[in-house]
Amino acid sequence: MSDAPLPGPLCSTMQEVRAGVDALDRELVALLARRFAYMDAAARIKAERGHVRDEARKAEVIANARTAAEALGLPGAVIADLWEQLVEASIAYELSAFDRR
After folding, report:
1. Domains held by the chain: number
2. Both ends of the chain: CA-CA distance in Å?
3. What percent of the chain lies above the pLDDT cut of 90?
């Protein structure tokens, strides 16, 4: 018997749903760690602190997330709001990483 959580459509109990959500949250945190490693790299590569914030790139990243979400049948506005927070957190992290170097 596998310890892997059931896919959402196959869940029949809240215990199964919660196990799936918890497993997915662990995966998301691991993916965020990978994303933030790129922020460390950006802070190392950029020559000036003033180059950290790039509003055009921010808008592109959020639009890409919205488009990908909508293609999967997810609410684009909700995903765009999440990505707004993610990108702002990433910028703050990158600024901190830049200052540490």
Report:
1. 1
2. 48
3. 95
Whether 32 is covered by a domain: the verdict is: yes
In a domain, 3, yes or no: no
**DSSP code of residue 13:** S
- Assigned domain for 2 exists: no
Q: What pTM did the predictor assign?
A: 0.89
Q: Quote the CA–CA distance of 69 and 11 in Å, as a whole number.
A: 23
Q: Residue 53: give the domain boundaries.
A: 8-100
Both tokens of 75, joined, read 């609410």
Give rounded-to-5 percent helix, strand, coil for the chain. 80, 0, 20
Look-up of token digits 């170097």: 101
Average pLDDT rounded to a whole number, residues 21-26 = 98
Residue 1 resides in a domain? no
